Fold this sequence. Notes:
The protein is an alpha/beta fold. It has five helices and seven strands. The strands form two sheets. It has a five-stranded parallel beta sheet, sandwiched between helices. Strands 1-2 form a two-stranded antiparallel ribbon. Strand 6 (117-122), helix 4 (125-130) and strand 7 form a beta-alpha-beta unit. The longest helix is centred in the middle third of the chain and has 13 residues, at 53-65. The protein starts with a strand and ends in a 6-residue tail after the last helix.
Amino acid sequence: HGGTISIESVPGSGTTVSITLPIRASDVVQEPNVQEGPKHAATYRVLVADDEPWVLHLCSTSLKSEGHEVKTAVDGTDALKRFRAGSYDLVILDQAMPSMTGTDLAKAIKQEAPNTRIIMLTGFAEVMASSDARPESVDMLLSKPVSVEALNDAITRVMAGSQPGR
């Protein structure tokens, strides 16, 4: 790809690996314009709960570009507080979060609002699916890392009631 890799290592101090790749005009990704409005007829009020800032940013940016109203929470306790203070059609949550697991959060949400759809976006999705360990309160499992297309497809399916990721 025309890039370079440099490795600097100091015994007892660590190693730094730098990868440099050239940017071509075709590689430049345009930031979505969240003011464009919805690209689909159905838009939803979505709460995203994850302790990883990059996941919150990816989900929030991509969902807003699709016209959804999005709020974020940094852990399970924060998410439950925000859920109780608002009204949401869909909650996207991680399994491994500080203060409350995604399983416990999903259970609490379903007890309060059984019709709220829940997608668990986790690095454990494949393991959970293969061992049939999907939490009962979760409508769909989705693996991290996730592409924008896979996230949008999962939302369409779960909101339509189709749950092939179970």
